[in-house]
TrEMBL record:
InterPro entries membership: FAD/NAD-bd_sf, Flavin_mOase, Flavin_mOase-like, FMO-like
Listed EC numbers: 1.-.-.-
Name of the molecule in the record: Flavin-containing monooxygenase
Family stated for the protein in its record: Belongs to the FMO family.
GO terms for MF: flavin adenine dinucleotide binding; N,N-dimethylaniline monooxygenase activity; NADP binding
SUPFAM superfamilies: FAD/NAD(P)-binding domain
Superkingdom of the source species: Eukaryota
Alphabetized UniProt keyword annotations: FAD, Flavoprotein, Monooxygenase, NADP, Oxidoreductase
Cofactor (UniProt): FAD
Length: 468
C-alpha cells in the first residue's frame, strides 16, 4: 500500500478503534498523516467484541461506574446483509471454510471482518491498546494544538500533543431511559439493553420490553423463547391498540408503574410484571472532551457541528466520525474519514467558521420547523423516511437523507460516493426490516442483485490484484 505524502502531514490522534476508528486510521495514514490510535480495550472491534460481562448496576446510571463497552447480546445477527455493510474496498464476504457464511451473519463474523481489515492495512501497529483517553483539551500556548491525556489499565499515565484529534468513541454505551411515572417505587427487576446478554434471567417470567427498534425487536423475541409472556411497549403503535401473538403482546407506551408491581399501558391494560427491559437507546457521551463549551450535548444533539463532523470553532482540529446513526454505518465512517483526512492535509478546504456556523444553525432551524426533536439531529433518513421521525420523508428534510449526505461529502473530497448497487441493496434490506416479518434475515428474493454485487466485488479484486 502506498501512502500519499502531502505538504501538510499532521500528527493526529484517533480515539477508539471500533469500525469507525479503524477506517479513520487507515484514511489518515493514506493521506500521509502520522497517526496514533488510542483504544481502552485490548482489541480492535469496539462494540463487536462480545463479552458475557455486564455492568454491576443493570441500568448503568452511575457516571463513575466501570464501563463495559459492548452492548451486543449473544444471539445478535446483523440487521443488514453483509454485502452492503462492509467498507468500499474491503468487501464483507464469506471467508472460505471459516466463520458464519450467512448473509446476515452473527456478531463474531463482524468482529472477524474488522480484525481482518486491521491486519490487511497494518493498523494495529499504530494503536496503543489498553489505553483510555481521559482528557482532550487545547494547549494553553496554542489553541490549534491538542493535549491528549491518557492512562493504561495498569495505571501508567501520560500525555502527548497532537495537531488534531478524531473522535471515534462510539455511542452505544451510555444508556438512555424512558421516563415512566411511578417507576421509582416499582418493585420489579429493571435492566437496560446495554446489559442484556441472554434470556436466561427471564425464564417463566412476565417481562415488559420497552422499545421496538432493532434491539427491542430482537430482544423481545429472544426473551419470548423462555419467558411466560413478553409485553412490548412501543411508541410506534396507537394509544388504544393491543396486539397478541404466541406469548408476545404489543402495547402502546406505559402510562405508569405502581408499587404493587403492576404496570398500566396507555391502552388501559394492566400487567403484573417481573421485569422491565429498557431498549430505549443511548446517549452521546464524551467525558474526556474539554472544549470550553464550544461542543455540547443537548437532548442527544452534539453541536454545533458542520455536517455532523466538524465543530466550526474548533475545526479541523477536532472532528467526530460516526455520529449519524442508522443506515450504512461502515460506509459512512469511511467517507467521513476521507473528508477529515483531506481537510487536515489541506487538500480540501472547509468554509470559514462563520459560514459553517450559519449552515449548522440553518440545519437546526429546519429540523425545528419540521417539528423534529433535537434528539433526532443525527438521524439520517432512508428511502422510506424514518419511522422514528413519523411521516417525514427525505423530500421534507433533504439535509438528512443518507445518500445526499454521502454524495455531498464525496463531492467535497473528490472521492467515489455510494455505489448504486449498495444503495439498491440497502433499500431492499430496509424494507425487509420493516415489512419482512420475523424471518427477514433468512428469506430474500434479490438473487439477481446479489449476482451483480458479487460481479462488482470480482472487478474490485481484479483491479486490486493489478495495482499491487
Ligand atoms: P464502537 O464500536 O462502539 O467503538 C468505539 C471504541 O472506542 C471502542 O473500542 C471503545 O473501547 C473505544 N473508546 C471509547 N472511549 C474511549 C476512550 N476514552 N479512550 C480510548 N478508547 C475509547 N451496524 C451495522 O452496520 N449493522 C448491524 O447489524 C448493526 N447492529 C448493531 C446492533 C447493536 C446492538 C448496536 C448497539 C449497534 C449496531 N450497529 C450495526 C451500529 C454500530 O454502532 C456500528 O456498526 C459500529 O460498529 C459502531 O462503531 P464505532 O467505531 O462508532 O463505535
Amino acid at each position: 500500500m502506498t501512502s500519499l505524502i502531502t505538504s501538510r502531514a499532521r500528527h493526529v490522534a484517533v480515539i477508539g478503534l471500533g469500525a469507525a476508528g479503524l477506517v479513520a486510521v487507515r484514511e489518515l495514514r493514506r493521506e500521509g498523516h502520522t497517526v496514533t490510535g488510542f483504544e481502552r480495550e485490548k482489541h480492535v472491534g469496539g462494540l463487536w467484541v462480545y463479552t458475557d460481562l455486564v455492568e454491576p448496576h443493570s441500568l448503568s446510571v452511575d457516571p463513575d461506574r466501570t464501563i463495559v463497552h459492548s452492548s451486543i447480546y449473544q444471539s445478535l445477527r446483523t440487521n443488514l446483509p453483509r454485502e452492503c455493510m462492509g467498507y468500499s474496498d474491503f468487501p464483507f464476504v464469506t471467508r472460505s471454510g471459516k466463520g458464519d457464511p450467512r448473509r446476515y451473519p452473527d456478531h463474531r463474523e463482524v468482529l472477524m471482518y474488522l480484525q481482518d481489515f486491521a491486519k490487511e492495512f497494518k493498523i494495529e501497529e499504530m494503536i496503543r491498546f489498553d489505553t483510555e483517553v481521559l482528557c482532550v483539551e487545547p494547549t494553553p500556548e496554542n489553541k490549534h494544538k491538542w493535549r491528549v491525556q491518557f492512562k493504561s489499565s495498569s495505571g501508567v499515565s501520560g500525555e502527548e500533543i497532537f495537531d488534531a484529534v478524531v473522535i471515534c468513541n462510539g455511542h452505544f454505551t451510555e444508556p438512555r431511559l424512558a421516563h415512566i411515572p411511578g417507576i421509582e417505587s416499582w418493585p420489579g427487576k429493571q435492566i437496560h439493553s446495554h446489559n442484556y446478554r441472554t434470556p436466561d434471567l427471564f425464564k417463566d417470567q412476565v417481562v415488559i420490553v420497552i422499545g421496538s427498534q432493532a434491539s427491542g425487536n430482537d430482544i423481545s423475541k429472544d426473551i419470548a423463547t423462555i419467558a411466560k409472556e413478553v409485553h412490548i411497549s412501543s411508541k410506534a403503535v396507537a394509544s388504544d391498540s393491543y396486539g397478541c401473538y404466541d406469548n408476545l403482546r404489543i402495547h402502546p407506551t406505559i402510562y405508569r408503574a405502581r408499587e404493587d408491581g403492576s404496570v398500566v399501558f396507555r391502552n388501559g391494560k394492566v400487567v403484573f410484571a417481573d421485569a422491565i427491559v429498557h431498549c430505549t437507546g443511548y446517549k452521546y457521551h464524551f467525558p474526556f472532551l474539554k472544549t470550553n463549551g464550544y461542543v455540547t450535548v443537548e437532548d442527544n444533539r452534539v453541536g454545533p457541528l458542520y455536517k455532523h463532523v466538524f465543530p466550526p470553532a474548533l475545526a479541523p482540529g477536532i472532528s467526530f466520525i460516526g455520529l449519524p446513526f442508522m443506515g450504512l454505518q461502515f460506509f459512512m465512517f469511511e467517507i467521513q474519514s476521507k473528508w477529515v483526512a483531506s481537510v487536515l492535509s489541506g487538500r480540501v478546504k472547509l468554509p470559514t467558521e462563520d459560514k459553517m456556523m450559519e449552515e449548522a444553525i440553518a440545519f437546526y432551524t429546519k429540523l425545528e420547523d419540521l417539528g423534529i426533536p433535537k434528539r433526532y439531529t443525527h438521524f439520517l433518513t432512508d428511502p422510506l423516511g424514518n419511522p422514528m421521525l413519523g411521516t417525514f420523508k427525505p423530500k421534507d428534510a433533504v439535509v438528512i437523507s443518507q445518500s445526499d449526505y454521502f454524495n455531498w461529502i464525496a463531492k467535497q473530497c473528490g472521492c467515489t460516493s455510494i455505489e448504486r448497487w449498495r444503495e439498491r441493496l440497502y433499500n431492499v434490506a430496509i424494507k425487509k426490516i420493516f415489512f419482512g416479518g420475523d424471518s427477514y434475515r433468512d428469506q430474500w428474493d434479490d438473487d439477481q442483485l446479489i449476482e451483480e454485487v458479487y460481479g462488482e466485488f470480482a472487478k474490485l479484486k481484479s483491479n486490486q490484484d493489478c495495482s499491487s
